[in-house]
Design brief:
The chain has 4 helices and 7 strands. It is mainly β. The two termini are 34 Å apart. The strands form 2 sheets. Strands 1, 4, 5 and 7 form a 4-stranded antiparallel β-sheet that branches. A 3-stranded antiparallel β-sheet has the order 3-2-6, with no helix packed on it.
């Protein structure tokens, strides 16, 4: 949720990624703003994130329930059932045969990190401790994951693989302008 540097690095179990390497992927524009040579800013803080999902079972006999939960620990909650009892959880059922408009993501989850923490946004944005601040090649010291769980509705084994499309948008405060790199 608040880690801008390699946000998908922990999402490798049971997934086959197309065209990206999750352990090294950074969001578009990250290397322009923050990199070891020629960066503009030295620090950042993620104020808000939006995750959009589309899950398509490949068989008409399959349907799945997906839950997305803001958490303090990676992989917790570990099931959809446990996730539904947690605050900051959103869930949706997906089945094949749906017709959407081009580019539409039916599942949208938007969250402010300060609201998750239960503190005023101004206190979070002006973090004097530095624990919520990321730098060129590091996430914040205190990182909060978004945990995605996907299960079949009847707890059966999928007959075909799932296609999952994910898009994540970050709202970021950049600071620590490096004036020597813009001369």
């Amino acid at each position: 949720m608040n880690g801008l540097y390699q946000p998908f690095a922990g999402m490798t179990t049971g997934l086959t990624w197309g065209s990206i390497t999750p352990a090294t992927y950074v969001p578009t524009g990250y290397n322009v703003l923050f990199n070891a040579s020629g960066y503009l800013y030295t620090q950042w803080i993620v104020t808000e994130t939006l995750v959009e999902l589309d899950i398509t079972p490949q068989s008409v006999t399959d349907s799945v329930v997906a839950s997305l939960t803001a958490s303090t620990v990676a992989n917790v909650p570990g099931t959809v059932g446990i996730a539904l009892s947690k605050p900051f959880t959103k869930q949706m059922t997906f089945a094949s045969g749906r017709v959407y408009k081009l580019g539409e993501y039916p599942f949208k989850y938007r969250i402010k990190t300060s609201e998750f923490l239960g503190i005023a946004n101004m206190v979070y944005m002006n973090d004097t401790s530095g624990v919520f601040v990321g730098s060129i090649a590091e996430n914040p010291t205190v990182s909060y994951p978004l945990v995605l769980n996907v299960e079949t509705g009847d707890n059966s084994v999928l007959s075909q693989p799932l296609e999952i499309r994910i898009r994540q948008t970050f709202w970021v405060k950049c600071y620590g302008l490096s004036t020597e790199t813009i001369n």
